[in-house]
Amino acid sequence: MRRRDIRNIAIVAHVDHGKTTLVDAMLKQAKVFRDNQVVQERIMDSNDLERERGIRILSKNTSISYKDMKINIIDTPGHSDFGGEVERVLNMVEGVLLVVDSVEGPMPQTRFVLKKALEFGHAVVVVVNKIDRPSARPDFVINSTVELFIELNAPDEQCDFQVIYPSGIKGQAGLSPDNLAEDLGPLFESIIRCIPGPRIDKDGALQMLVTNIEYDEHKGRIAIGRLHAGVLRRGMDVRVCTTEETCRFARVSELFVYDKFIRVAAEAVEAGDICAVCGIDDIQIGETIADKITRKPLPAIRVEEPTVKMAFSINTSPFVGREVCYQIDILKINSVDQQFNTE
C-alpha cells in the first residue's frame, strides 16, 4: 500500500542550475519562517565550506506542509565529485525534481542524476528554472531533455513527464513559460499530482535503510533514512543488520523527524516517513535497522564505481632509499656552511 499524506522527493541538477535558490523560495512560500524573520540566501548551505564555495557538498533534509500534505525535500549536490551522495539519497524518495537551466539545458551531471533516477524507476518532474532570464530558450531545453530521456532508454511512462517553468529568485512558477503564477503553487500541485506516495508495509516487521550519517557533538552519530516497514519508537530495542547472518543488538535512544527546517523529537515514526535515529554509535551507511526478532535486512546500497582510481603504493624503484641519504648529505653540507659563515 502507499501513504497518501506524504511525498518524498529529491531535487537534482547540474551545478549552478539554481537548485538551492529554488528550495529557498519553496521554504519561504510554505511559511517555514516568520514574516519578520531575517533569512540568509541559500538557506540549505549550512556548512561553512558550502557557503564559501557556493556549491552543495552534502545532501540536506527538510520538509514543508502544503494542503495537509507533508513533503520531505532532499537538496542534493550538483557537482559531479559528490555524485555518491545523490545515489544514496535516491533510496529514500519516490520522485525527483530535475532542475535544468533555461539557457544551458541538460549538462553532464544532469545526465548522471537522471540516469540514476530512471534506474530506480522514480517519477520525474522536469523543472526549467531561471525562466525569467532574457536569453531563456525553453523549447530548446525541453527538446534536449526529451532526447536525453530517449538516449537513456527511459520507458514511455517516464518520458511522459510534467514540465514546470519557475523563477526561483522571483518565487514564481507556471505550466507554460509565458504564463507564470504569482507563487510556486503550480510546482507544489505538480509534486502532489505526479509523484506517488511511499510504498509501505504498515503492519510488517520494522525495516529502515540507513542512507546517510550525520554527527552531533552531544548525540554522536545520527542515522538518517526512510522507514520502509513497521513502526519505530524511541527507546525501542532493534537489530542492526548488514546481512541476515550479521546482526547486532542496539537501542534507539532518540528519534527525530524533519519538520520545516529543523529536526523535531518524535515518540514514534510510521513507515513511509524520513527520520533520524540516535543511540547507535557504530551505525554505518547501508545497514538496516530491523526488528529484533525477524531481523530482515533490506538490499544494501550500491554506489557506482568511480571513474578515476589512484593507487598509493610503496616505492619500488631500484634507487629506493638512496635519495634520502643524498638529501641528508646536502643537509649536512648546508649546516656546515651555515656554521662556517656564522663564525
Topology:
Layout: E1 6-13, H1 19-29, H2 48-53, E2 60-66, E3 69-75, H3 83-89, E4 95-101, H4 108-120, E5 123-129, H5 138-151, H6 156-159, E6 162-167, E7 172-174, H7 185-194, E8 207-216, E9 220-229, E10 231-233, E11 237-241, E12 247-251, E13 254-259, E14 262-265, E15 268-270, E16 274-278, E17 288-291, H8 322-342
Task: Give a short summary of the structure.
The protein is α+β, with helices and mostly antiparallel strands and 343 residues long. Helices cover 25% and strands 29% of the residues.
Task: Write structural notes for this entry.
With 343 residues, the chain is of the alpha+beta class. 25% of the residues lie in helices and 29% in strands. An 8-stranded antiparallel beta sheet has the order 12-11-17-8-9-16-13-14. A 7-stranded mixed beta sheet has the order 2-3-1-4-5-6-7, sandwiched between helices. The radius of gyration is 25 Å and the shape is globular. It starts with 5 loop residues before the first strand and ends with a helix.
Beginning-to-end CA distance, first to last residue: 89 Å
Query: What is the H-and-E element order?
Result: EHHEEHEHEHHEEHEEEEEEEEEEH
Strand proportion, as a percent range, falls in 25-35%
From the alpha-carbon coordinates, what is the Rg to the nearest angstrom?
A: 25 Å
pLDDT < 50 runs, ≥5 residues: 334-343
Major sheet details = 8 strands, antiparallel
Main β-sheet, spatial strand arrangement: 12-11-17-8-9-16-13-14
Tell me, briefly, the overall form: globular
Helix content: 25-40%
* Strand count: 17
The overall pLDDT average reads: 81
How many helices? The count is 8
